[in-house]
Amino acid sequence: MDKKLLLSIQYLKGVGERRAKLFARLGIETVFDLLTHFPRDYEDRTVIKRISDLTPGESVCIKATVMNTPARRKVRNRLSIARFKVFDESGYLNIVYFNMKYSLSGINPGEIFVFFGKVVDTQGMLEMHNPVFENINEAGHVKTRRIVPVYPLTTGLSQNQVSACVKNALTLYGDGISDPLPDDVRNTHKLSYVRYAYENIHSPASAEAIGIARRRLVFEELLILSAGLLMLKKRRVKQRGIAMEKGDVSVFTDNLPFKLTGAQRRALNEAAADMRKGVPMNRLICGDVGSGKTVVAAALMYLACVNGYQAALMAPTEILAKQHYKSLSKLFGKLYLNVGLLTGGLSAAAKRDIKNGLLSHEINIVIGTHALLSGDVGFDALGLVITDEQHRFGVLQRSALTVKGENPHLLVMSATPIPRTLALILYGDLDISVIDELPPGRRPVDTYAIDGEKRPRAYRFIREQLDAGRQAYIVCPLVEESDKVELASVKEFAEKLSENEFKDYSVALIHGKMKVKEKDAIMREFKNGGVSVLVSTTVIEVGIDVPNASIMMIENAERFGLSQLHQLRGRVGRGEHKSYCILVSDVNEGATRERLHALCRISNGFELSEQDLKLRGPGDFFGTRQHGIPNLKIASFSADLKTLKEAQAAAAEIIERDPGLKSAEHAELSERIKLLFAAEEYGNIFN
After folding, report:
1. If you compute the radius of gyration of the chain from its CA atoms, what whole number of angstroms results?
2. Can you identify the CATH homologous superfamily of domain 446-602?
3. pLDDT tens, 220-238?
4. Which of 72, 493, 498, 519 can pair with 507 through a Cys bridge, CB separation 3.0 to 4.6 Å?
5. Which of 486, 612, 658 is nearest to 555 (CA)?
6. How does pLDDT run across 248-304, given as a tens digit for each residue?
7. How many whole angstroms separate alpha carbon 5 and alpha carbon 1?
């Protein structure tokens, strides 16, 4: 790769220091970051429709003659409206601009323009609101009569600004993009040249060109990811690990007050077999909410301890770490194993005692947060590392804990059910165990989808639950946590709830901009019963156990995928009380309605994940983070599953021929793997 592609975009024409800070919000810092900031959609402005054929709600181009001079008037202090009429051979249409920021003096009666915008039905009259326009005689087709990319944005950046910067970068540095795909791979899979792909993804000549460019770039991204994960796995297999041959986990499981499910036993046997080998275990346990992953992890901790080693469990939040500490202390107390807790909130003296206990081996098992990664935390004999909710920890963080022992075994846990075939493809550096069975007695959560008109009725039902001593969650999603306007509206929503519908109850709000300690304090108060209604803008921390919460109400439920909604629903139904999930959405479009109704109908997370894969189409199957693996910029695990399989097979052939990617033809592929993984805080693990 040409080193110029790694230059800061600050020095690119049209960017500068101030705008570079805005681009940084989108994760764009280098020229290459900008070139790989791919459009999320396209507007096809090549098709011109007759006015008589227009349909309300569509965004289209029309070619029409201006009938009268635009008339501007002020409606109130901050709102002005400009209106004029246009016509073609089939009919008439009103053009309306609200708070027009630029002059309409160039629009004169009798002249022909191309307008592109959204068609709106206003009291029976069709109008086009705030369209872009060009004189039919102007050359260049800058705004209309072409396919226009639509980029992900942040506050302060417009589509035109991003598009212009991308165009400049492609013109100046496009020739510096080397092809990471070997010629034989590109020819075998009938993929375009790299320059063609970048030009037509950002400035497409046709819809067909977009398809050709996207397939090429998706394949490339998935091959780089697959090859990197395969290299990780092969490197691990070469390492020598601890063979834990002593002991029988049945000594632990026989002491449990319940019997393990078949799925739990299968996962436990698979992981225990790994730990008895002389190679470090690197296994993912993927299980539905409440499926009992922690008990399986506890049995493996016991196995490590009876073989003379220590175990460490790292949780993403202090409250979740304390929850694990409380439950595991009960399990291991009968077996005379000492459990310690290490979090940032402990006093200096308490931390010192825990650290000394780990070094002296007085503590067999430690539960903690990121505090475990501190440089002054050491172990006498660390043999097993477990991370809970592994998507919250990158490979670098997991490595920072495993280096505190001599190639200890690693177990990662995730409560997001995904189809097993997809899991096997995604987690190329991990072996997979799936717990797809719930313990007996776990009560299903009744789920209902309603529109906004039924919200008052839902509030009455929630108040009835609160009066019975229960608690409730109300989740309000944000488009992005940095959106100050939307965050302000959520704060206002929480205030209105506390002043009106729930004025007789304690209402609290948590959101992503709060400090961790502040969020943990509110969650702790909710868990202890001091808060009746918890309003949240973020996904409630997975794993937080509040048995008394019996209601989960999700506003704008259409913004979530099925897997995310199922995760939220899993926050209730954890106690003895009948629980309910209420999905609020005014979107009545077919796919959205089908997705929400699927959640009402299906309680099994793995069955839902299959539905999510079928229904959601292009987009991020897991939400904003790809569960500990690098984020993808153009590929979609749901929409590109076929291409993913092809890319994985191609990656396997390449790594088989050249395990270290040392040959000249694989030099660029090697560089791109390092760039992808380093960008996601994996550290220089391939150096």
Report:
1. 28
2. P-loop containing nucleotide triphosphate hydrolases (3.40.50.300)
3. 999 998 998 888 777 766 7
4. 498
5. 486
6. 899 999 988 889 999 999 999 999 999 999 889 989 898 877 788 999 999 999 999
7. 7
